[in-house]
Design brief:
By secondary structure, this protein is α+β, with helices and mostly antiparallel strands. It has 2 domains: 106 residues, AF2212/PG0164-like (Elongation Factor Tu (Ef-tu), domain 3), CATH 2.40.30; 53 residues, no CATH class. The strands form 2 sheets. The protein has a 6-stranded antiparallel sheet, with helices on one face. Strands 1-2 form a two-stranded antiparallel sheet. Strand 1 and strand 2 form a beta hairpin. Helix 5 packs antiparallel against helix 6. The longest helix is centred in the C-terminal third of the chain and has 16 residues. The relative contact order is 0.13.
Length: 188
């Protein structure tokens, strides 16, 4: 008989990596509802990457009542954010991007204090007038744009807004319009 035998976690416990070791938190600490939920968690990822991720120490579908993406808001080390909990096939996680890490003064591998709650406020992208004018000039493009999710609209606006030169900006607007007219969500 081995000296140490790993046991499966009882169903009423959830595990989370903190401080380089696995910890157990009672699932009952996270009752179903919108939150807020407070916990400490280790950020996963490599320091040289653009993003890191955190996995909440609870069963996301059981707590929020859905297996779909869950819009959330809260704080990481006191820095406010709006994001989503997503399931990519190996559990739920939330991306902690470079801006969030800078604001929270943390990096991948750090243990952070998180306050998290479901975000039921509608998410609306502020579309610059220049982009809005181009979109509304074509009915098919406008219909496609209106059917896009918040995230897809946000990414188009970000991609165009990040252009440093006017030529690049105009080329991206043209590419967006070609995609919208073809009924495509993405084209960059």
């Amino acid at each position: 008989m081995p000296r140490y035998q790993r046991q499966k976690n009882p169903s009423h416990y959830s595990t989370s990596a903190v401080g380089g070791r696995r910890i157990m938190a009672k699932k009952s600490d996270f009752e179903p509802g919108d939150g807020p939920f407070r916990f400490r968690v280790k950020l996963e990822g490599a320091d040289n990457m653009e993003v890191a991720a955190m996995r909440p120490p609870f069963d996301v579908p059981a707590v929020f009542g859905t297996k779909a993406r869950v819009p959330v808001r809260g704080t990481v080390n006191g820095y406010q954010f709006r994001s989503s909990l997503c399931n990519m096939g190996h559990g739920y996680f939330m991306v902690v991007n470079k801006q969030m890490r800078a604001g929270a003064k943390c990096k991948a591998g750090d243990v952070v204090e998180v306050v998290l709650q479901r975000d039921r406020e509608e998410r609306v992208v502020e579309v610059p007038a220049e982009i809005s004018k181009v979109i509304t000039s074509d009915k098919t493009a406008e219909k496609t744009w209106d059917s896009l999710s918040y995230t897809h609209q946000k990414e188009w606006v970000r991609a165009i807004g990040d252009a440093k030169r006017d030529e690049t900006k105009q080329a991206r607007i043209k590419k967006m319009m070609e995609a919208m007219k073809a009924g495509k969500r993405l084209g960059f």
